[in-house]
Design brief:
The protein has about 450 residues and is mainly beta. About 5% of the residues lie in helices and about 55% in strands. The chain has a 21-stranded mixed β-sheet that branches. Strands 17-18 form a two-stranded antiparallel sheet. The longest helix has 14 residues.
Amino acid sequence: MPDSLLQRALGLCSSSLAVRLCLASAAVALTVPAWSQEVAEPAPAPPATTGTGHWSWFNVANAPFIPVPEIAVDPNSGTTLGILPTWVHTDSEGHIRRIIAPDLLYNPYFGVGAHARVFAYPSEDTQWSVVAQLWEHVQRGLDGEYQIGRLREERWSFSYSAIYDRNGTPRFYGIGNESPEINETDYTAQQELLQAQIGFNLTQAWQLAYTGLIRSVDVLPGTLTNIVSLQSRFGRILGVGTNNEVGHRLSIIYDTLDDLVVPNRGMEWVAYGGVAAREGIFNDSMYAEAGIDGRAFWLLEPGTVLATHMALRYLPETRDVPFWALSGIGGGDSTIGGEQILRGYGAGRYYDRDSFAANVELRQRVWAFHTFGSQVELEVAPFVDLGRVFGRPGTFPLSQLHSVGGVGFRGIARPSVVGRVDIGYGNQGVAVFTGISYPF
């Protein structure tokens, strides 16, 4: 059962935007070195510059949009090239309140594609987004998210999401912690999802949350050349074809983070349990889940944060669990109760009944500057990821771990935006991931 926050909707098109935000920050920084200051000091706003005609559009001080070249690399979807004109709207205090970011792309697997995006941050307590995509071949989607009560200052918090996505890049290698790379298969995943999360705020730190979802998942034959289709190698594994699912989850959350988007100190722990059924609400296909997800942050010195994360998930019974609902590790995003990051491998690299993951990052701010009326920070974050899946509850989670080392590059526009590029190295080589918001 997926998490209902922004990263879930954006994760479905992760190779589309976040790296551009990070590249945009870097590109702007390279064009305006005179504006940079000491990292620990706020940078003064740049002086007004002059320009005439359309050439003024390429001056970052008065351009109506940021013309960002797109170069995205993903282990599953390959290299995508394009252009992304980005309009950034800020308030009188320089905080980003809206991002409008359409683009035009080319990918060797899916041909020409385009996205239309609006990300809105009316306040720290409320945010919403709409993302649409259409490609020449296979891929298309429409995702919407709305959240209110994020600060937990009132008694109730709400999060809603509606997702339609058709994705031609998912991989499946079989079940188990040692599933061989030679077993790689491809499939097309089509999903329609409605999800709501209702949080009862006991205090600002403690929350009791219910998550309910209805979704339909179609696992169709793959379309990528030179990669065997899942159905050819694994036959009718449970989850192939059309599966309808209704899920329920109850979570107890303890959160003392000092910031929702860019935390410097504090911790968040989520203990959860839930049930889901493939046909109806309660029947013979019902399966259960239980787990814990925790993250903690320490401010070592101004601009330097040690970030840690741990996740452990158990499925008491897997007889009626579709393969895509098993515990998994791989890819660049962590989802509470879902797949965990292992940034040297593509998404869906390892699946089994249970999973463990641990991640450590040292987030170091290296540059801060003003542009487009907003403060932008650039960050470098060396990281280590550890993780495994296992099929028996009695297995020691810390044995036979897959390990990945790497470095992340982030562009931050407080209070609402983090764009990232993470480069990881594991025993299958180098993998590159992009995203919006931190990976955990």
